[in-house]
Amino acid sequence: MPAAATTARRCRELIEEWLADGSFGERLPEVARLRGVPQPEQYHAEGDAWTHTLLAVDAVPGDADPRVFWGVLLHDIGKADTTAFVRGRWRSWGHAEAGAELVPAAMERLGLGKIAADIAWLVKHHTFHFSWNLTPGVPLSRHQRRFMELPLFPLLLQVCAADAAGSRGGSDKGMKIALLADMLLDEAER
Question: Which of 110, 148, 151, 159 gives the lowest tally of CB atoms within 10 Å of its CB?
Answer without folding.
Answer: 151
